């Protein structure tokens, strides 16, 4: 088994939320493997760059990348996955989207000396119940540099800036580092702002980084995405460079390795989740916060993930009295945990655009056709999939409430 395969195994198992003791043992094993790899290098008289050069020239970098892509395809046939042509076609498109995202993140825009903010998840790249009411930017950075983020706040409801340390290959995960939330962001009268991203406090807006920092993330959340404008953000290295350095074999070799781990690892994680959701169809039970946080979920959000399945003459009616919170939303996904196409169809509803009952409660209707009632969620010709309800920043965590779900005959809604 190669070094790359061990790293891939660690990524997969770590994302699948092994116990801390098991993850610790596996990480220790990887460290030992890395030690002996370096010993072999020393004995052979080769450097790390020599190895990267050889792997690129021999074609091994590309061969292993393609092998991981083939491995990713096996996810579509795991137990519980729908095997009909429609769902399998969506599954194949899902893998192509992950491939595009992985190559952009880890090959095209992976230089921490010349970072670029990119939306890794968006209208045509989807995973893990991607939220239509969220707008994310990521950039690869390094504790070896200092950066400045400039932008314009605009009208989006929430914005937060976060830095993270390490990576799955060397530290066993991504650890939180710096945080600058929207309420603490100092904005000029014209809506502009500037953030210093460095180790020591600097300026009116400071986002901390450390030697191990590898990523900066911008999270934005709409209260009503039809009326709000996301913030404009740009990042640059402060060392004065105006163009990236020349490409190296190391950058390509490591980039393809990280991309392949992402492409093969993400479907494994979310296929496992979707299979688990089938245990409580057409219900919205509380999702384990430890599991969601370990997979990159926001600790300030209470999640209710599940599976839905409706016949042509059925509808799912969800009723709830929303607790006091900053925001909330509900969305419908396909089986692969991709949000349905919110560009053209109403597949989600939120606090800012929902229609409420006179007493403040609300009713959401999931159906294959429009019943002519408020808060209709379109299934977009799907008969099954996953779904998610979120409470954002509850005033009191004890106020979290599980939405009530009931499957009814569609005709009863028209009476």
Quick description:
The chain is α+β, with helices and mostly antiparallel strands.
Descriptors for this entry?
disordered N terminus, alpha+beta, four-stranded mixed beta sheet, four-stranded antiparallel beta sheet, 415 residues
Descriptive report:
- By secondary structure, the protein is an alpha+beta fold.
- The chain is built from seven helices and 16 strands.
- Strands 1-7-3-4 form a four-stranded antiparallel beta sheet, with no helix packed on it.
- α1 packs antiparallel against α2, α4 (60-73) packs parallel to α6 (249-277) and α5 (85-108) runs antiparallel to α6.
- The model is unreliable at 1-23 and 168-173 (pLDDT under 50).
- Percent strand equals 25-35%
H/E element sequence: HHHHHEEEEEEEEHHEEEEEEEE
Averaged pLDDT, please? 89
Computed structural class: alpha+beta
Identify the strand order in the major beta sheet: 1-7-3-4
Q: Separation of termini?
A: 64 Å
Cα Rg:
23 Å
| Beta strand count | 16
Percent range of helical residues:
25-40%
Annotation field: number of helices: 7
Poorly predicted parts: 1-23, 168-173
Q: What is the global morphology?
A: globular
Largest sheet: 4 strands, antiparallel
Architecture blueprint of SSEs:
Elements: H1 3-15, H2 20-44, H3 48-58, H4 60-73, H5 85-108, E1 134-140, E2 147-152, E3 158-165, E4 175-181, E5 192-198, E6 206-208, E7 213-221, E8 232-237, H6 249-277, H7 289-294, E9 301-309, E10 314-320, E11 325-332, E12 348-350, E13 362-367, E14 376-378, E15 384-394, E16 404-409
Parallel strand pairs: 5-6, 13-14
Antiparallel strand pairs: 1-7, 2-5, 2-8, 3-4, 3-7, 9-15, 10-13, 10-16, 11-12, 11-15
Helix pairs in contact: 1-2, 1-6, 3-6, 4-6, 5-6
């Amino acid at each position: 088994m190669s070094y790359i395969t061990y790293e891939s195994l660690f990524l997969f198992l770590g994302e699948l939320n092994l116990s801390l003791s098991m993850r610790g043992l596996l990480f220790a094993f990887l460290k030992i493997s890395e030690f002996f790899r370096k010993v072999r290098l020393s004995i052979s008289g080769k450097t790390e760059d020599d190895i990267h050069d050889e792997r690129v020239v021999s074609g091994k970098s590309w061969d292993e990348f393609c092998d991981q892509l083939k491995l990713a395809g096996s996810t579509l046939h795991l137990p519980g996955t729908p095997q009909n042509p429609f769902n399998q076609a969506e599954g194949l498109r899902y893998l192509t989207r992950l491939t595009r995202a992985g190559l952009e993140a880890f090959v095209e825009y992976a230089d921490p000396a010349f970072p670029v903010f990119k939306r890794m998840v968006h209208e045509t790249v989807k995973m893990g119940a991607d939220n239509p009411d969220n707008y994310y930017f990521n950039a690869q950075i390094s504790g070896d540099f200092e950066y400045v983020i400039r932008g314009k706040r605009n009208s989006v409801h929430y914005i937060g800036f976060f830095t993270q340390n390490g990576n799955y290959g060397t530290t066993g995960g991504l650890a939180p580092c710096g945080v600058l939330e929207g309420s603490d962001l100092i904005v000029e009268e014209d809506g502009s702002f500037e953030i210093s991203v460095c180790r020591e406090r600097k300026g009116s807006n400071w986002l901390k980084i450390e030697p191990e920092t590898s990523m900066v993330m911008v999270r934005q959340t709409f209260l009503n995405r039809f009326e709000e404008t996301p913030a404009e953000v740009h990042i640059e290295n402060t060392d004065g460079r105006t163009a990236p350095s020349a490409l190296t074999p190391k950058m390509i070799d490591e980039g393809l390795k990280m991309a392949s781990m992402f492409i093969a690892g993400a479907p494994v994680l979310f296929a496992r989740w979707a299979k688990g959701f089938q245990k409580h169809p057409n219900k919205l039970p509380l999702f384990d916060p430890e599991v969601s946080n370990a997979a990159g979920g926001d600790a300030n959000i209470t999640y209710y993930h599940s599976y839905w399945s409706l016949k042509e003459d059925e509808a799912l009616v969800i009723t709830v009295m929303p607790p006091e919170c900053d925001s909330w939303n509900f969305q419908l996904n396909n089986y692969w945990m991709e949000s349905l196409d919110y560009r053209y169809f109403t597949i989600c509803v939120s606090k800012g655009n929902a229609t409420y009952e006179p007493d403040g409660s609300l009713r959401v209707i999931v159906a294959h056709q429009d019943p002519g009632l408020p808060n209709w969620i379109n299934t977009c010709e799907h008969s099954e999939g996953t779904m998610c309800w979120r409470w954002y920043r509850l005033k009191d965590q004890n106020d979290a409430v599980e939405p009530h779900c009931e499957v009814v005959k569609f005709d009863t809604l028209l009476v």
